[in-house]
Amino acid sequence: MKSATLEELLRHREAKSLVVLATNLNTGEERLVRPGDLDSGNSLDPAVAEAAADAFRSDRSRTVETGDGPVFLHVFNPPLRMIVVGAVHIAQPLARMAALAGYDVTVVDPRAAFATDERFPDVTLLTDWPDDALTTLAPDARTAVVTLTHDPKLDDPALEVALRSPAFYVGSLGSKRTHAARLRRLTEAGFGDDDLDRINGPVGLAIGARSPAEIAVSILAQVTQALRREA
Q1: Does residue 121 sit in the same domain as residue 160?
Q2: pLDDT > 90 in the chain, percent
Q3: 4-7 contact pairs (CB < 8 A, 24+)
Q4: Are residues 105 and 71 in the same domain?
Q5: Long-range pairs, 111-120, Cβ under 8 A, ≥24
Q6: Which domain holds residue 37?
Q7: pTM to 2 decimals?
Q8: How confident is the model over 65-122, as pLDDT tens digits?
Q9: Over the stretch 29-43, which tens digit does the pLDDT of each residue have?
Q10: 87 and 135, same domain (yes or no)
Q11: Is 117 exposed, middle or buried (0-12, 13-18, 19+ CB in 10 A)?
């Protein structure tokens, strides 16, 4: 790898940006590819653009054949993170499942009686107010944010921070009626339709889930769908 390429790659890594290193295996020519480079208006080879989009979604490096020879795409995606607001019953199986799926999980709840090591072993716990915690955690394009408390005093401030971030997934627990009221409050707080459309609410895929574990499955499935469906 050329020193200039390495320096640029390190800058992207520090900024937690999604990036693929494309190297022509015949010529040694290098190029860093970002999601914004995949538009048809850019000079990127269409085969490389298509393969890079797939690499971003799948987290898998691969070689693609082009008219100029084989190009190896090395994915340098930032780590996956999930921020769960609310140390409730659903959060317990969700934290375990998300960790198994490769997420670095943080559970946020200022109610110290809920956010305990006994209930959440081997999980990072923060007892700050959710908006303060999310501001510090700074969700990026590889972060999923899930709010589970049903309490507007906790969920809404977290959602406000999440909607101002590039988090790839934002979801919030609650019935359709609860979600409608949530959207009204966020509208009054200044968020537009495009912002509100980012919220998956009621959270999770509609699979008829009832128990906390089943609801956790539906949430993680929806998070996975959002992650793998879009670069």
Answers
A1: yes
A2: 78
A3: 5/30, 5/32
A4: no
A5: 111/87, 114/86, 114/87, 114/88, 115/87, 116/87, 119/87, 119/92, 120/87, 120/91, 120/92, 120/95
A6: 3-75
A7: 0.82
A8: 999 999 999 999 889 999 999 999 999 999 999 999 999 999 999 999 999 999 999 9
A9: 999 998 888 876 677
A10: yes
A11: exposed
